[in-house]
């Protein structure tokens, strides 16, 4: 038995087969969240997809669309992302010069606001927005590509942010993205994470349901 909260596993669509996205989404029906990485080839060195694809996917699942905007500028695309069907919108502390306003705009659009933090950025950078965020996303790889190795150096940041969340008294999801698999998942959960973003650890497996269960580990009731 454990007194830890249940862990959310959000499969990352970036690792899916883009030629059959509808089928790929159907294969992860166990997941209540779907992580969608929007990349522009400018803020990060890759290009993925944008609001039209998000809107097209919305009819294929009831999962929460957890949209991670790795684009610069980000503010001009918040409304389009919300209208496309996002439930949560996460911006980076590094690409949102007016972060308060960006987070307030996201909430005003009817979405849960989140903020992501890159490996080289200290946890203290989020100290002034703890009252505005519903999700904090710790990048445990340098953003822009899937399949990278987990950066052990980020464990201390996860612990620091978990303590900042406790001190805030707010129910903030602490998510981790990058190199998450059955080996690293227990380590980040032990550090305080409550949500795991996983790409190849889910979409790279034949049995996606089993892959999600493996990441959920002992923190989720598997009898349901």
TrEMBL record:
This is Ribulose-phosphate 3-epimerase. Catalyzes the reversible epimerization of D-ribulose 5-phosphate to D-xylulose 5-phosphate. It is an enzyme of class 5 (isomerase). The keyword Ribonucleoprotein does not apply. It comes from the Bacteria. PROSITE patterns: RIBUL_P_3_EPIMER_1 (PS01085), RIBUL_P_3_EPIMER_2 (PS01086). Substrate binds at residues 12, 68, 144-147, 177-179, 199-200. GO terms for molecular function: D-ribulose-phosphate 3-epimerase activity. The keyword Isomerase applies. NCBIfam families: PRK05581.1-4, rpe. Its cofactor is Co(2+); a divalent metal cation; Mn(2+); Fe(2+). Keywords: Carbohydrate metabolism, Isomerase, Metal-binding. PANTHER family: RIBULOSE-5-PHOSPHATE-3-EPIMERASE. InterPro entries: Aldolase_TIM (IPR013785), Ribul_P_3_epim (IPR026019), Ribul_P_3_epim-like (IPR000056), RibuloseP-bd_barrel (IPR011060). Binds 1 divalent metal cation per subunit. Pathway: Carbohydrate degradation. Belongs to the ribulose-phosphate 3-epimerase family. A divalent metal cation binds at residues 35, 37, 68, 177. Its EC number is 5.1.3.1. The active site is at 37 (proton acceptor), 177 (proton donor).
């Amino acid at each position: 038995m454990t007194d830890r909260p249940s862990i959310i596993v959000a499969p990352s669509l970036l690792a899916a087969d883009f030629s059959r996205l509808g089928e790929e989404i159907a294969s992860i029906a166990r997941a209540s969240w779907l992580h969608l990485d929007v990349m522009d080839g400018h803020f990060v060195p890759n290009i993925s997809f944008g609001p039209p694809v998000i809107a097209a996917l919305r009819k294929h699942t009831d999962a929460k669309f957890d949209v991670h905007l790795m684009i610069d500028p980000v503010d001009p695309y918040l409304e389009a992302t919300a209208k496309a069907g996002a439930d949560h919108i996460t911006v980076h502390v590094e690409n949102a010069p007016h972060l308060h306003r960006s987070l307030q705009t996201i909430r005003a659009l009817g979405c849960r606001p989140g903020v992501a933090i890159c490996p080289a950025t200290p946890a203290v950078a989020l100290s002034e927005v703890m009252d505005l965020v519903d999700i904090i996303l710790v990048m445990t790889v340098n953003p822009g590509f899937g399949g990278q190795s987990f950066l052990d150096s980020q464990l201390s940041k996860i612990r620091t942010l978990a303590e900042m969340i406790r001190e805030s008294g707010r129910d903030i999801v602490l998510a981790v993205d990058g190199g998450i698999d059955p080996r690293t998942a227990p380590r980040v959960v032990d550090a305080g994470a409550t949500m795991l973003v996983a790409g190849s650890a889910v979409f790279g497996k034949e049995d996606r349901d089993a892959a999600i269960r493996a990441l959920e580990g002992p923190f989720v009731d598997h009898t349901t």
